[in-house]
Amino acid sequence: MASTSDIKKGLCIKYSSDIFKVIEFLHVKPGKGPAFVRTKLKSVTTGKVIDNTFSAGHKIEDVRVETHKFQYLYAEGDDLHFMNTEDYNQITLHRDVVDGSEFMKEGEVVTILINTEDNMPLSVEMPSHVILEVTHAEPGVKGNTATNATKPATVETGARVNVPLFINVGDKIKIDTEKGAYSERIKE
After folding, report:
1. Taking the mean position of all CA atoms in its chain, how far away is CA 18?
2. Which residue numbers delimit the Translation elongation factor P/YeiP central domain (predicted)?
3. Which of 78, 86, 161, 173 has its CA 20 to 30 A from that of 101?
């Protein structure tokens, strides 16, 4: 058992007969009344995100998890195949379980949280940034640069990202996988 003081980003807890992962939290100490913790929880089974508030000192049931590095091998329909980089065991996960799966290319190494009680994969953590090549982008229009103008571009994994007008086909760009947004152009 853990308490609200143990809440941190990435903690997996049992709550209302499901397993949730803490994706955001804020300890609040108002001037009047008792302290509390405001959280944003994501179900590892359904992907649904809920907001919840725990009063200070509230007991929560945490779930012991192990993290393992897995390499993304290939997609087969909506199933994604991964291989453990230590013992070479393979697992298959549904695309909905993986946040940012549209930015994953073959060979990408991700971290998978595994429940130690039943050895079931709980969630997949993508690297914070990935570098992908632009395969399609409309040419930028001169004179449109008074503000931070963007245009849609398609990257090698098939995902669409808004990029600045100076990005062209063949450029490698860094993408923030959490926001699904362009970060910077990579110079070779």
Report:
1. 20
2. 67-122
3. 86
CA 15 to chain centre: 21
Contact 181, 128 (CB under 8 A): no
Structure-token match 């152009």, residue found: 185
Domain final residue pick, 79, 105, 125: 125
Tell me the residue range of the domain where 179 lies.
Answer: 129-186
Residues in the chain: 188
* CATH code at position 138: 2.40.50.140
Tens digits of per-residue pLDDT, 125-162?
888 889 999 999 888 766 655 667 788 899 998 889 99
Number of compact structural domains in the chain = 3
Please tell me the pTM assigned to this model.
0.70
pLDDT score of 26: 92
